[in-house]
UniProtKB/TrEMBL annotation:
Domain of life: Eukaryota
Record organism: Tritrichomonas foetus
CDD domains: Rab6 (cd01861)
PROSITE patterns: RAB (PS51419), RAS (PS51421), RHO (PS51420)
Pfam families attached to this UniProt entry: Ras (PF00071)
Keyword terms of this UniProt record: Nucleotide-binding
Gene3D superfamilies (UniProt xref): P-loop containing nucleotide triphosphate hydrolases
Name of this protein: Small GTP-binding protein
Gene Ontology molecular functions: GTP binding; GTPase activity
Signal peptide: none
Amino acid sequence: MTTKCKVVFLGAAGTGKTSLINRFMLNSFDKDYSTTVGIDFLTKPIQVQDQTVNLQIWDTAGQERFKSLVPSYIRGSDIAVLVYDVSDPRTFDEAIEWHKTVLSERGNDAVCILVGNKNDLENQVKQEKVLEFAQPKSIATAETSAKTGQNVSHLFKLISEAAPGIVKQKEIVIAQPEENIEQENKCNC
């Protein structure tokens, strides 16, 4: 079975959205990459359990001048990945603003994943603050480093498992049959 999943990456400029995607797609990191202009689109199939998920990844520009383009991409998305730079608290605040935009475009059932990137740098965003925001909203969180590759596979596994139509495998518990209980009023015919 094949499922299509449109994933939009959102966040401030310089948070490493493109670098995360390149690490996943190409297993490479380029410290001298060009800033995303507008929107870039990539696709990659992934196996999740016994299903194939075709990830359609939309890489958005973080600059203010491109913000007006992004809502139309959010509207058609299945999952929004909100990226912030762990070494820059301002970008966490911007990720929260992007979450508000996602809710206004997709409604309260929008699936979001909050990602603190650049965890190879000194973390300036307290984990308590992240969890205080994410947990009440049932938003999955991850910390990654596109530079080192740390947790990038885990992030895309989270994304794939959240894709619509993915049936989660659950443990099946087979109840033990009750022991034969002799009835008191049985006939001995």
